[in-house]
Here is the input.
Amino acid sequence: MKEYFKAKYLALAIALVLAQGCARNPVTGKREISLMSTEQEIAIGKQSHPSVVATFGIYDDQQLQNFIKAKGTAMAKISHRPDLPYQFFVVDSPVVNAFAVPGGYVYFTRGIMAHFNNEAEFAGVLGHEIGHVTARHSARQQSSQLLSQIGLIAGLVLAPELGGLAEAAQQGLGLLMLSYSRAHETESDKLGVEYSSKIGYDATEMADFFGTLKTLSDRSGQSIPTFQSTHPDPANREKKVNQWALEYQKAHPGNYTAERADYLRMIEGMIYGNDPKQGFVENNFFYHPELKFQFPIPGTWIYENSPSQFQMAPKDGKSMMLFTLAQGNTVEEAAQNIVKQFNLQVVENQAATINGNRAMVLISRQAPQEGQQQQQQAQNANNTVQIATWVIQHGSNIYALHGMSYLNQFNSNFRTFQSVAENFRNLTDPDKLNRKPDRIRIKAAPRDGTLLEVLQSLNTPANYINDLSVLNGLGLKDRVTRGTLVKTLSK
Ligand SMILES: [Zn+2]
Here is the structure.
């Protein structure tokens, strides 16, 4: 599916170069070969949006959505391309990230929103992302082993209210992995300074935020790239951005603000980290309290949970499992739909019962896609993907659990797939069912002291202390004066 997307995209790009030739870059003013017309950029943003929504979900906080829209719109107006139909969203992901799609679609995760300590930090990153759009930076799609090797089945959507957006959930994941060249990143940092200053924010705050990113990147063992990982060294950026910010303010004297208290009050109550409602992993099990099921995760596998699907795979990327909602009124109907939708050749199928739930087990192969057929690529053990699918009825929902690998490795993986599927069962443990997310709580420091002393005087549990140091953008020994607003965490 990814290969297909690339091929289509490339053909389109070539067609457009021929049609359009040279165009003037709105930021640099230079003529350059432009791969996309404005209409094409807008079309790409529009096409990608549903898959972004299916992958992450929109964060349910109207005040926050209004805020990002208002600031984004104000900034777009003073940018080099004020006429694009910009759209701004906070998506429901704990990952610290922000990204822009051509055409003016800009996304911030709730994870990054939780880490800003004032509006100016947010505005700097907003300017950076709008900068990628206005300077027409073309993103490179980084392929991850997991997705590029066996990226064939795009999931249906677990959250029923999102049904129908399913198609390209994997494309959405790819969006998290967009990267730009270092030269483009530097140019966007400069634009971030310019745009955020123009709407009245102190861009030295943006520099400070790179300190937070540096701490996060030092601590991160996250499996998906975050905002900072494809970007230049944060320490270096911090210095440069600070310098550009001061230069801008000297050249354009005015009142540049940070708006700390307003920002902090706005994020009071925001969910921090994983929201257990969307499913969570603990002790090698995936639990879904809303849909009330659980299944195991093999030993050292890595995983990725999104509203549309749960994916997991061994680190070598040679096999993978995918859990999604299936469509149909019975397991038989759902199985037929899957076969049709993904153009599968069924090798065998049989009815089964999994811990009291009606099920069907299918073994199938993916038929070569159109175009590949022309090349007469013989189906062989190295390029044929074989899939074991368990279609499981659970309450009023039907799920599909796919285990896939290349044909020549299928037998050695099948037992692992099977042990996951056969341990799918009802979730009844009240401790898991009633799990509540952590939320950010804004408190006034009750005393003068170090951040650690202040957090302790607010009865902060020990396991939150390190996260709160990063969230507050302060070291534990940094001084905080009485009355200063600080972030704390509680259920
Ligand atoms: Zn960037």
